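Internal QA ticket QA-208
Title: Verify multi-chain structure generation after dependency bump
Assignee: T.L.

Test input:
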Amino acid sequence: MRSPIYLTGTGQTRFGEHWDMSIKDLMEEAIDSAIESAQCTALDIDMVVVANMLGEVASDQAHLGAMAASLLPHHPPALRAEAACASGSVALHTACALLESGKAETVLVIGVEKMTDISPAKIAAGLMGAADAEKDAPSGLTFPGIFGLIASRYMHEFNLTREQLNLVSARHHENAMSNPFAQFRKEIPAEAISMSPKVADPLCMLDCSPISDGAAAVILSTKKENPIRIAASQLATDTLSITDRPTITSFAATKDAMAAALEEAGINQSDIDHLELHDCFSIAALISLEDMGFANPGEGISLYEKKGKMTINQSGGLKACGHPVAATGIKQIIDISKQMKRSGRTYGLAHNFGGAAATCGVHILSHA
Amino acid sequence: MRSPIYLTGTGQTRFGEHWDMSIKDLMEEAIDSAIESAQCTALDIDMVVVANMLGEVASDQAHLGAMAASLLPHHPPALRAEAACASGSVALHTACALLESGKAETVLVIGVEKMTDISPAKIAAGLMGAADAEKDAPSGLTFPGIFGLIASRYMHEFNLTREQLNLVSARHHENAMSNPFAQFRKEIPAEAISMSPKVADPLCMLDCSPISDGAAAVILSTKKENPIRIAASQLATDTLSITDRPTITSFAATKDAMAAALEEAGINQSDIDHLELHDCFSIAALISLEDMGFANPGEGISLYEKKGKMTINQSGGLKACGHPVAATGIKQIIDISKQMKRSGRTYGLAHNFGGAAATCGVHILSHA
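Actual output:
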């Protein structure tokens, strides 16, 4: 970071099924809430970055930057950033660049997704836009299928049992009990995970994050100081298609983004107190823990078998909070900041990826 | 500009109907051509920004940042930026911020659109995503209809005749004769414009830019010097819906972006030697000339009635070059740079908007 970037405001809708709210309504609620929490007024916002993946598919709506700017009295310059489920992270990274370049002093970043208005089949097809339409889609695979293949291979390579994998979603559901913004605030015993309907062998329904509506907004500023600031913002990219990779049980983009983020923040992974990671499917949580260096390959499950000093998806993660895809990366920042305020601890990390981690964003927050 | 940003490479496909090329093929051709023209190799590219509007609608493809990065051997960090037909401009602005912030030293910016694979009705519906899906779309209007209303009102307010309006598209077609990348290299006499089929009264088919496939790429660098550099990059936003505005014969976003760009470059509009403006419909060219201060309100047509020292859409503009929407803002930069190299003159300006100018980007290039 060339200049310190402070997190001065946060706001979100509850994640879930909002039948009575449009994409604009969702944005409005999150923006109002972020401005109310910030040490600024709407007029202090110099620029807006909107993260969104499915506006065209589910709401016939592109051009969401201008829509968000229309909700502010002075219509500041705005744009939409997209990288599938990592849209939140690329929007945050863009906002950091706008701030560090001096183009803006206060930037509103809002992630929004409206997914429940169209059929699950159409949403699954839209989400498949995160993979390669020429190389991956023709096989008939959707994302549960891709991660089903990944889980099969991982269980074969590392002798992970189905009972062990159950621990991931069970922990996330347990954590969500105390999060009022979570879509599912319901404890689910570990053995119930693998008893839920099979979606893509070996993954069951309760291994998968749900389809959700929601919006999450943060206000970042170089002008107003705040105890919580962005210590690192890094993106990395891998091949769009998993068919072009040497392995599917490890994601190069996570490794690259993590290494760059730790270097930027000047810390080690053992310094992280709170982690929000991208558990779009239960298996993704384990692979991500390993790729980030929190566990050796094949040993990610150990962090679910017993709790360590670092909290993992205390919010409930994508599984239990819900996963309005482009809002997720922003929501992670909000949750990390809340966790640091509550615990008084210093470093939180948000890990967010798109597709099969073709894009990965890692953001580190520090608490003075 | 905090640090000078140089235009070190440019490349594009011909704009037109590329039945045999996918969105990936189009990107590949433009990227290869930009790298070949640049004083760098693919490995020098630190980041990629992709401008695209209609990937989901026309190609079932989101996540185009990762797709572009997949075409480079080292998969640099990448994201997609979107603001409807101003996607090219917001991508350029994002790239400038990445460069000025120090996050990157060399950025590839590529605009791409694949529009001819689906029916005109579906493309028209997709393009309507640039307007407000709640306020504008329910009326049944599409963009030719919106600009038909704007043209009607303009002709009423300023007594512009249909014969005068013919001069705009006729000039753009004349200019495209010398542009090998233009979709239509065919001179069209002024009187033929208003004899073409009526699309949305008073606009005829030849007042409208076409549906096009195409890609355009530039390489921007703070590291490698080049005689041509970015002197200003500015965005402005207006209400997404035209129903929320005090007038429809002038676009506030153009005025705001232009004023900010002239201030950033430290010049007056009379210093501009070459102009590429956003003539999505003929009437838009006149309004834009007035909003940019090149003519008084109602007098934009005077710049088509006789030629001045400043060239206007020498490339052929959107009308004759074609308008693969997100590629247009990048293609304008390529054309401006070619014009400055040929003429040896100093300042060129690219004006690009999305929707009914809900987002406007103005970029000024200078030639040392």
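Spot checks passed. The mean pLDDT of chain B is 97.
Status: verified.
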